[in-house]
Hints:
Residues 616-777 form the Cation/H(+) antiporter C-terminal domain. The chain contains 29 helices and 17 strands.
Amino acid sequence: MAQEQIDLAKLNQTILCYAETVYRINGVWEGPDPLTPFIPLFFVQITLAIMLNRLLVFALKPFNQPSIVAEILSGIILGPSVFGRNSGFRKQMFPSYTYKILEPMAHLALVYYAFLVGLKMDIKAILRTGSKAVNVAVAGTVIPFSIGSALYFIFQGNKAGFIFWGAALTVTGFSVLTEILEKQEIINTDIGKTAMASALINDVSAWCFLALGFAITGSPENIHWSLLCTTAFVLLCVYYIRPCLKWVIRKTPEGQGYSEFYICSVLTGVAFCGVITDACGTHPMIGAFVFGLVIPCEVLEAALINKLEDFVVGIFMPVFFMVCGLRTNVDIISDQTSWIVVVLIIILACAAKIICALVVSIFTSIPINEAIAVGVLTNTKGAMAMIILEAGQTQVALNTQTYSLMVIAILIMTMVVMPATITYRPSKNLVPYKRRTIEKAKSDEELRILACIYNTRNVPPIINLLRASNATNRSPISVFALQLVELVGRATASLVVHSSRKAGPRNPSHVEAQADHIISAFDNYELRSDGVTTQALTARCAYSTMDEDICNIAKDKRSAFVIIPFHKQQTLDGEMEDINPAIRSVNEGILENAPCSVGILIDRGLQESNDHAHNIAMLYFGGPDDREALAYAWRMAENSDTSLTVARFIPSSDAEELDPVEVVAKSHVTLHIDSEREKLLDEDYLNKFQIATANDKSITYTELMLNDEEEAVNAIKSMDGHNHDLYIVGKGAGVISPLTAGLADWCDCPELGPIGDLLVTSEFESAFSVLVVQQYIRLNKRDGSVRSASSLDYRQEMELRPSVSESDGFESLNSFTTRDHNNRMALQD
Length: 829
């Protein structure tokens, strides 16, 4: 009887039965199927997901689709919607017992992905966001969320999952949006900047929605405790963990990398923070995201991203999208009503974003066409939308049908953004043509200069060059000092306009300290000079896009001249040292695409001399670049304390005549320049210069008749003993001269041109700085020829003179082709 009572007691217990089988893998030739054990099958599943993802990325490349589309599609294809229809494939590759590994790995992927998102997010960029982007973001969050929640109540009726539907339709994929903007080459336009700033704010709100959704669906009766504990954890991270990390960073010697112990400790902290927020009642992702957000040092951020990103995004996240695809079943929404719901969701969600942007445009200065483009772009969805949906199904707030509906809707919404933006091309509101060069600038109008600064060592020589530029109240100079900072750690590019004479932060970072130094130096220059206004800016961008950002800023500021430092700096022993190879690529990109004239400043003592360069030499060989260089030197010579020597190098009658076709065959990039027209322009401009400066004793003009490049080199070296502080030369692109043709073949730095390269790389007794000038030119789309700044004006002037006819060689001149080592202008077919 007692035994029977014991048996009845056992019946009330839960008993778990499992197959006690130990798999021994002895290869494919012996033993059980090698895909039966968990681990080998898991690796095969990962390999399959990654390979399918890469294949889809390649297949969608011609359509310029973002990578998120391939990731979602790869998961759907592996799931029950496509390959999963085959029962043999499903049982062999995705048996039910493998979910015990796939789902935990997918959640682990989300934890470290959330950490990366927090690590890359720049809170300071959000605080600096302009009112237009804030208005677009707020309106684009509140209204779409309300519409998404209402749609959920209409089609489902229960209250559990409305927050996940609304948040998924509201969120904008920041990283995916950045990818689309870069492909469309509009990331640096006003539309791109507004859309990115709005998406950044929207991304933060999505994390708040996600935390709230977990709290509501997890334990409704304890929601206040969940939110209170999560808030306390956030405060703990901000006011305790972040200062501790700052202390550790301060103890690390500058320039020394972070050890494996530091990196492993931070990665362990990610898991620990995830455990805390999971215990608080939200989700481990929230803790990982907040922890990534409070990491203080950009160098540490960059080290963590380099260690973690490829593995998480390349290996872990495909597992997450594979799980999403396994939970998506298109067959459930195969009826007509379900597809009507999908279309309705897409139309209402997209329309809500666009209408919000249009409403904001009414109260701001955003043009209507740009507002529509911003509205379309903010409909971009990314991994965050899929994370929200996955969270909704994990919390049993979304069933398989509603989950599948939303996955398909998000996929289609993201796919249509790229085709919708193809038709948009930003209007190029450039300054009038004549104002993009110094040569065509009027003497009584403001000269606008953009001075690029890679490091604080560039500041003294640039300011001394500007001081020598003869700013007066009658002929003022407006200087935009642009500090260029490589984008590391945080993923948000930004442009900060600094307020003059404003106190900086109490404990500035290295970049902020440099910005304070630049602001102070240019403020002092403005206070000590008449007719000068300055504005300091800081641009954070990757080196790969830095040249494009500089050109866009030059256009926005209507600059006529951009000054860029050379990529080499002088060492203590007088040699030129390469400080950063990436700077050379940036400079070359600026020379190719600049909307105005450009000057490369090679500093070899300007900061060590007096307040400004007193003794200037200008070497004139002919062509648009030399005219621009002479125009700048002429302006500097108007300063009473400055002397100018202009040496014109002219090929003698005995000089070798060069065959343009032969010169073309030795070069890289095609340029069409009319040599006879340029000679006329040279003579005209030099005559004006000589007449205007005939009575100025501080200006010396000489002409040298030479036979070849060897005599030209000797003549330049003979000027070495005249103690010139600064040499100004033109880059000389597109000009064929027997005095420089041989030098071009030996250029170490083609971006300086043959004469600039000679002055920088050859040995001279005296130390002097060099300014190499390139005049803005434009490509004639009709015949592919190049027109310099004064070419069209001179052409119109000559057409009005009866003494010059087309037969005299003006209109009927045959343009020949030359090539330029520095890829200055690519010829369009």
